[in-house]
Design goal:
By secondary structure, the chain is an alpha+beta fold. The protein has 2 domains: 74 residues, Beta-grasp domain (Ubiquitin-like (UB roll)), CATH 3.10.20; 66 residues, Orthogonal Bundle (DNA polymerase, domain 1). The chain has 5 helices and 5 strands. Strands 2-1-5-3-4 form a 5-stranded mixed β-sheet, sandwiched between helices. Helix 2 crosses helix 5 and helix 3 packs parallel to helix 5. The termini are far apart.
């Protein structure tokens, strides 16, 4: 067992975990934040995407011990001027960028990272940034429209 300290959504978390504990399991089981989903455990679907020090990562590919002392943001940590929603979250609401919702947290987090790096991405850049995230409902057109809406409404801030 190893004691892991991780700042998640601005709150310090400390737990003893097995060295092989994946970050997604640490987030869901130890920090009790269930917004990031476990979809495949093989890094194919992107449902577990979170921000690590501001960069989008698939949390099923990282061990909790590897992010000791780092800062993680999950979908629960986003907020903004749209009745508490971030511009990306509001974009998904405005443009109907979700269907069943399973991929949505990962899509939102990947989109947030994109807009922080590039406040005015082209459609190709949006699609490229999201290509590691799978929507099984095939709502990609609405997801791209959602990101475009967010970019036009301050999503890069």
């Amino acid at each position: 067992m190893t004691t892991v300290r991780i700042k998640i959504n601005g709150t310090d978390h400390q737990h003893d975990v097995e060295d092989r504990t994946l970050l997604i399991h640490y987030i869901r089981e130890n920090a009790r934040l269930t917004g990031a989903h476990i979809g495949c455990d093989t890094s194919n679907c992107g449902a577990c995407t979170v921000l690590l020090n501001g960069s989008a990562i698939k949390s099923c590919t990282v061990l909790a011990v590897q992010v000791q002392g780092e800062e993680v943001t999950t979908i629960e940590g986003l907020s903004g001027d749209f009745n508490g929603l971030s511009p990306v979250q509001e974009g998904f609401r405005q443009q109907h960028g979700l269907q069943c919702g399973y991929c949505t947290p990962g899509m939102v987090m990947a989109s947030t990272a994109l807009l922080r790096e590039n406040a005015t991405p082209s459609e190709d850049e949006i699609r490229h940034a999201l290509e590691g995230n799978i929507c099984r409902c095939t709502g990609y057109e609405m997801i791209v429209n959602s990101v475009r809406w967010a970019a036009e409404n301050g999503g890069g801030k």
